[in-house]
Inverse folding.
């Protein structure tokens, strides 16, 4: 999965950089207005190009096996285990949401108290007509620091294809590091080995 992410990054970078460099080098010949107009057209076409790349690069074709039903696929995904831990499962408007048992991390010092929280979850969409599962990672991070003379709070969110490593409790009650790359790998196996395709959802 990381390899596919690198390929998509290179393709998107090439799409933005190479035409721009080519046009700028020919600016004396083509004229400034034409070059600026062409660069604007490239920027406008970025989103359709990104969607095209995601569909082609982050596409995992089903193995040559009969496709199971949607309910069976949801049940198999529901029982995925990573590091001995299962995921909390919710359904919101026919969207499956997987959430690992994440712990908050708190760091205490003599002069301030810092709290850092990282929440990861995955959304999945099911299309029974095409036997396709689409997924999107979500990562929300927040931190707060309470000192003697100050207080600060920050929050950030990412979605799409996200790599994350968070602390969770395994089935024995021990702390362990959870990497969602393991979830990606297991999801690819479960979906494709049961006759369904798996794609990344950008928007």
């Amino acid at each position: 999965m990381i390899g596919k992410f690198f390929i998509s990054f290179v393709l998107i970078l090439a799409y933005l950089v190479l035409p721009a460099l080519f046009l700028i080098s020919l600016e004396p010949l083509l004229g400034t207005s034409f070059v600026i107009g062409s660069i604007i057209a490239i920027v406008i076409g970025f989103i359709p190009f990104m969607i095209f790349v995601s569909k082609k690069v982050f596409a995992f074709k089903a193995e040559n096996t009969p496709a199971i039903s949607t309910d069976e696929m949801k049940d198999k995904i529901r029982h995925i285990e990573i590091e001995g831990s299962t995921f909390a499962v919710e359904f919101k408007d026919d969207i499956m949401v997987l959430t690992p048992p994440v712990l908050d991390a708190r760091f205490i010092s003599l002069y301030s108290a810092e709290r850092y929280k990282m929440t990861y979850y995955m959304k999945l969409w099911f299309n029974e007509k095409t036997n396709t599962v689409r997924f999107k990672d979500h990562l929300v991070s927040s931190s707060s620091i309470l000192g003697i003379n100050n207080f600060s709070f920050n929050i950030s969110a990412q979605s799409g294809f996200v790599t994350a490593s968070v602390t969770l409790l395994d089935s024995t009650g021990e702390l362990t590091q959870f990497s969602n790359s393991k979830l990606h790998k297991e999801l690819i196996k479960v979906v494709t080995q049961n006759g369904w395709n798996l794609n990344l959802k950008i928007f």
